[in-house]
Automatic annotation (TrEMBL):
SMART domains per the UniProt record, alphabetical: G3P_acyltransf
Name of this protein: Glycerol-3-phosphate acyltransferase
Domain of life: Bacteria
One Pfam entry name: G3P_acyltransf
InterPro entries from the UniProt entry: G3P_acylTferase_PlsY
One GO term describing the cellular component: plasma membrane
Entry function: Catalyzes the transfer of an acyl group from acyl-phosphate (acyl-PO(4)) to glycerol-3-phosphate (G3P) to form lysophosphatidic acid (LPA). This enzyme utilizes acyl-phosphate as fatty acyl donor, but not acyl-CoA or acyl-ACP.
Membrane spanning residue stretches: 9-32, 64-84, 91-110, 122-142, 149-168, 174-192
Species assigned in the record: Poseidonibacter parvus
A GO MF term: acyl-phosphate glycerol-3-phosphate acyltransferase activity
Keywords in alphabetical order: Acyltransferase, Cell membrane, Lipid biosynthesis, Lipid metabolism, Membrane, Phospholipid biosynthesis, Phospholipid metabolism, Transferase, Transmembrane, Transmembrane helix
Amino acid sequence: MDFFTNQNILFYISAYLIGSIPFGLILAKFFAGVDVKAAGSGSIGATNVLRVVKETNPSLAKKLGAATVILDALKGTLVLLLAMSMGASDSTLWGIAVLSVLGHCYSIYLGLEGGKGVATGLGVYIALIPIPTIIGAVVWIICAKVLKISSLSSLLGLTAVIVVASFLNDGLNVGSNIPMYIIAFIIYYKHIPNIIRVIKGEEKKVV
C-alpha cells in the first residue's frame, strides 16, 4: 500500500503538522506585536500570552489568552473528529491524539520547541474520554481560582483526568491505558521546570 495514500498515515501526519501550529505565538505577534518566545517564560501557551500581552494591553491579553486556549485545544480535537467521522479505529484515534500533543510540545515549525501541551491535551482527551476530562477541567478551574498558579492548577487537573479515567475506562478500547499515560507524561515532562519552581516557592501567580 502506498505510504501517502494510507488513511492512517495521513491522519498521523496531519495530527502532528496541525498540532505544531503555534497559535499563541501567531496571535500575539499579529494582534499585539509581541514575540512571546522572547518574553516572559518563552512559552507559546496561553498563560505566557496572557502574561506578556498584559504588560501593554490588559484587555487584549485576556482575549488572546482565551483564543489561544481554544485554538490549541481545537487543533487536537478537529483531526480526531474527522477521523471518527471516517470510521478510524480506536487505536488510530489514540495515535492521532499522541501526535497532536507531540506536535504542540515539539513543533516542527519552531525547531522542535513548543508549549506545555495542556490545552491540546485537553482537546484530545475531551474527544476520547469526555467524562474524566470534564471532571479534570472542573478541578483545573477550581484550583486556578484558589491557587492562582497556572502550571500547578493544570497539573492537578491533568492528574484528576488520569485518576478518574483509570477507574472508569478499561483499556480505552485499545487494550491498554498507555496512550493516555503517554500524553500525560509528555505534559508532566514539559512542566518539570514549573514543578521545580513550585517546590521552591518561586512559581509566579496569575493575577
